[in-house]
């Protein structure tokens, strides 16, 4: 009986040691990853630009930073669940309202870094159409297609609603920002008709002569501001970083230059670094140096 008790006791102790060991391993892994700031971003020109810019700035200050490329819904759920520290680009109050309603109780909305962001349906200036409610007249020459981006993007949901709102006999084509821009470039070069989903800020408006179609019923809403979001307790864990980022503001000129340099060099890291080197005074204002 005593031998049986001793065996049981050894088993219990062994299990306890195993559990404690696993707990320590997990704790060590958490300690190793806690110091790394994980920034969630999407494959959009302005998002790629500012994410790489902040990665460089924070690493220059001694922080470890990882950029995580995610779809829009995953960005919001990831920050809400604490899997991501920062979501770099969120449009409020209109474009990303669905995600704010869905996940907003579990993350913090930080300060605006860009004011007056816009989005909608865009065509080349050489096209005669000026308003969304005129698009039906141009259905045949447009092949009944609106060229979009990623299916999970807010602008795609809003465009589908717009198609229904204006009773348009058009198909919304899923693509990507790169795919959409390639199609725009090809047709623009030949002065062929095309309508795309697009937004400002974007380097395309500097590269091409484009115009937004009027939206009489405001199906896309009015202009948004762009903010960033952080996981719960980020302000306690990374107070210095949060203070820097909340002092961060960009306008059409500064953001446009950043995107243009990246496009010209065809390298987001090299382009962001060059822009930082050329804008030391502005960067120092953000970092309180």
Task: Give structural attributes.
2 domains; 289 residues; single chain; alpha/beta; seven-stranded mixed sheet; 12 helices; two-stranded parallel ribbon; D-Maltodextrin-Binding Protein, domain 2; disordered N terminus
Explain what you see.
Its main location: membrane. InterPro entries: ABC_Gly_betaine_transp_sub-bd (IPR007210). It is found in: Cell membrane. Residues 35-277 form the ABC-type glycine betaine transport system substrate-binding domain. This protein has two domains: 35-116 and 226-286, D-Maltodextrin-Binding Protein, domain 2, CATH 3.40.190.10; 117-212, Glycine betaine-binding periplasmic protein, domain 2 (D-Maltodextrin-Binding Protein, domain 2). Helices cover 48% and strands 20% of the residues. The protein has twelve helices and nine strands. It has helices spanning 2-34, 45-60, 72-81, 97-103, 154-165, 177-189, 204-207, 234-237, 239-246, 252-265, 268-278, 280-286, and strands at 36-41, 64-69, 86-92, 107-124, 145-147, 171-173, 196-200, 210-212, 224-231. The strands form two sheets. Strands 1, 2, 3, 4, 7, 8 and 9 form a seven-stranded mixed β-sheet that branches. The N and C termini lie far apart (73 Å).
């Amino acid at each position: 009986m005593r031998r049986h008790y001793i065996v049981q006791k050894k088993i219990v102790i062994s299990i306890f040691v195993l559990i404690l060991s696993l707990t320590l391993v997990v704790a060590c892994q958490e300690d190793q990853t806690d110091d790394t700031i994980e920034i969630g971003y999407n494959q959009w020109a302005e998002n790629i630009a500012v994410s790489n810019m902040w990665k460089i700035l924070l690493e220059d200050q001694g922080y470890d930073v990882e950029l995580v490329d995610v779809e829009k819904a995953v960005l919001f759920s990831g920050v809400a669940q604490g899997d991501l520290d920062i979501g770099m680009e969120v449009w409020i109050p209109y474009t990303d309202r669905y995600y704010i309603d869905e996940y907003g109780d579990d993350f913090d909305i930080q300060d605006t870094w860009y004011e007056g962001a816009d989005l909608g349906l865009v065509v080349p200036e050489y096209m005669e159409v000026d308003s969304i409610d005129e698009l039906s007249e141009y259905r045949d020459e447009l092949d009944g297609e609106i060229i979009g981006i990623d299916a999970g993007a807010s602008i795609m949901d809003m465009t589908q609603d717009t198609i229904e709102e204006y009773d348009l006999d058009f198909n919304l084509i899923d693509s990507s920002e790169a795919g959409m821009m390639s199609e725009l470039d090809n047709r623009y070069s030949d002065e062929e008709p095309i309508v795309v989903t697009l937004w400002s800020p974007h380097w395309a408006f500097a590269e091409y002569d484009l115009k937004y179609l009027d939206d009489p019923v405001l199906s896309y809403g009015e202009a948004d501001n762009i903010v960033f979001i952080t996981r719960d307790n980020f302000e306690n864990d990374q107070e210095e970083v949060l203070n820097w980022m909340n002092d961060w503001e960009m306008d059409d000129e500064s953001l446009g230059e950043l995107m243009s340099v990246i496009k010209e060099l065809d390298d987001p890291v090299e382009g962001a670094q060059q822009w930082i080197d050329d804008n030391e005074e502005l960067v120092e204002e953000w970092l309180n140096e």
